[in-house]
């Protein structure tokens, strides 16, 4: 376990300097001075696993390729799968040109690891087919997250839950929802110190969670509004430019919670193997491109000081702290954009409590990276 | 007290259709069908009070004029005051052209009501001068909010605290901070039903709270980023376009709370005359123009159901409810933009509690209107 943590920690400091969306600040880029000099091509090697990417044309599918390259993931072969519409198109990867193949029930023969991100219904239909063919499915959809017997994994948090899964014997492993991953990267080290009893989360979620088209909708609407034209909502029901709104996932009309909020509740309990932790969440979509932020209030079983919290966070792999009270400098979504790490700040004793069992914090993480593709590739790394 | 409430309630449904910033949606405008047909010119009348506007060229100063007009506020004379730089310029109001005068210590002779919004240091210096000259100062700055003996007023919440103040005898009345007003418009009716013990607030605050230049910075940076140019932070320390950040007010380095957050704590206690209510807040600036949103978790002394909460909210003047779970339609900043009312939704029992003493809600209110100018003019109305 120790060597795993070290390995993840070293990788977590690597930075990706390509300024997708032109949204990175100089300040954020400066943080990349901590990056390790690594060969950033994936490692094609005859004894590596055979990989399939399901949904390669989507935002997360593309990020799978970026992350595999960045992390020098060993593979002997890679198959790029998508719908019939995209089959036949080409895709560059690791210096070679691949032809995208149509995803079918026969796609998984000989595949060791299949990274799925093609939506819940495709996962539901073809995930078990792939597992039956002997592949280990790492599924980014919500299809199997709460299924008993399917491990729900954040590699820094609960790698032990997938210890029984080995390459060569088919299985499904679920990637948690982005908001859950980002929250638990920050909260788990504190939970280990003082045991979280109750979490109250308000999110500030980026467009990317709803896919590349949602990011484009935000761009186009913003242009239109700045030009004095009316914004045209397509994917979302209300104007997104210079606005924010309750998360667009389906709502439990009886409870009044949406699916995004319930994922935070249920997935946390499964990942922590703790059915008693109390959670409430309000999930809000904000006009930001690809990194989520979360304001988190925590109530603990035991006392915890700010110093203990910061120490635990600083030791946790995949977490960076920006907590400069003097200069009022704390994490922003742009700090986290395209970064591997989750950024934590505003760590402080909750003044609404008379005891020492409360903390407030503010967390930012890249929704496509640690919230999706990176976490899935880290799961695949645990199989090596 | 009853007739006051009715009068505020009627006015609260009036809408302002001018689409400042081009940011209003058709849907938001539709809500204006509830508007009352009123003469929308202010009422110049020989027996009305003499008014002064201090800081008339600022965002809130300009909104004072809009609100006075919209609400048909009676006045016999109006004096428009600003710094020497703006003195001599002209300003249209209610069909007449006024010359802006330089603000000096002698500006307040004969003035009955002075609406101040020219920053804390000017309020500190000239507020007491105006009061000594016999004017009632309604001050929008934070200069006197926590001063003993100065009423801190939300007209729908604690009008009784200024009952002793009458036109003709100088006094200072403080307008609360925007985040406090917007939160307490939603929370006070619930507090009256079940007594709030603890509030956990996460804000989504608009550019306007930092003034017109901050709104322009958001516009300009957004244009630049969309054009692939670097964003140039000027007023705020980090990029604002497609980003969000911890509120830019000064921070108590020891506590780790910023001034905006502490205002919510301290002002709520003063307005409710309740020193025991517990509050924690995380204040975040989001890329939205002029309406704040707040995610609020409430813990009560006594049981409260969703139905009781909605009933109390529906009866409270100045509150509109958008709480359509079936269609996932809840308040957005654009719903509140240029509107008098504060919009409340996502009202639901807190599932992180085993008892019936918890609620979550989401609130939006126009920062310049109910968060500043409208609340101040409503205070002035209580003096009539």
Q: Could you say how many structural domains of chain A there are in total?
A: 2
- Count of β-strands of chain A: 20
Largest sheet of chain A: 6 strands, parallel
Q: Based on Cα principal axes, name the global outline of chain A.
A: globular
First-last Cα distance of chain A: 14 Å
The greatest interface between two protein chains, and residues involved on each side, is: A-B, 72 and 72 residues
Please list the strands of the largest sheet of chain A in the order they lie side by side.
Answer: 7-4-2-8-9-10
The SSE order of chain A reads HHEEHEEEEEEHEEHEHEEEHEEEHEHEEH
Proportion of strand residues of chain A: 15-25%
Helix content of chain A: 25-40%
Rg from alpha-carbon coordinates of chain A: 20 Å
Q: What's the pLDDT, averaged over the residues of chain A?
A: 91
Provide the low-confidence segments of chain A as ranges. 1-40
Named at the architecture level, the CATH assignment of the largest domain in chain A is 2-Layer Sandwich
Oligomeric state of shown chains:
homodimer
Give a written overview of the molecule.
The structure is a homodimer of 384-residue chains. Chain A is α/β, with parallel strands linked by helices. Chain A folds into two domains: 39-174, NAD(P)-binding Rossmann-like Domain (Rossmann fold), CATH 3.40.50.720; 180-368, Dihydrodipicolinate Reductase, domain 2 (2-Layer Sandwich), CATH 3.30.360.10. Chain A contains ten helices and 20 strands. Chain A has helices spanning 2-12, 26-30, 59-70, 120-132, 178-194, 212-226, 259-271, 306-315, 333-336, 369-382; strands at 43-44, 50-54, 74-75, 77-82, 90-93, 96-99, 101-102, 113-116, 136-139, 171-174, 196-204, 245-246, 251-252, 257-258, 278-282, 284-285, 291-300, 319-321, 342-349, 358-366. Chain A has a six-stranded parallel sheet, sandwiched between helices. A six-stranded mixed sheet of chain A has the order 15-11-17-20-19-18. Chain A has a two-stranded parallel sheet with strand order 1-3. In chain A, α4 links the parallel β8 (113-116) and β9. Chain A is globular and about 60 Å long. Chain A starts with a helix and ends with a helix. The relative contact order of chain A is 0.15. At the A-B interface, β11, α6, β12, β14 and β15 of A face β11, α6, β12, β14 and β15 of B.
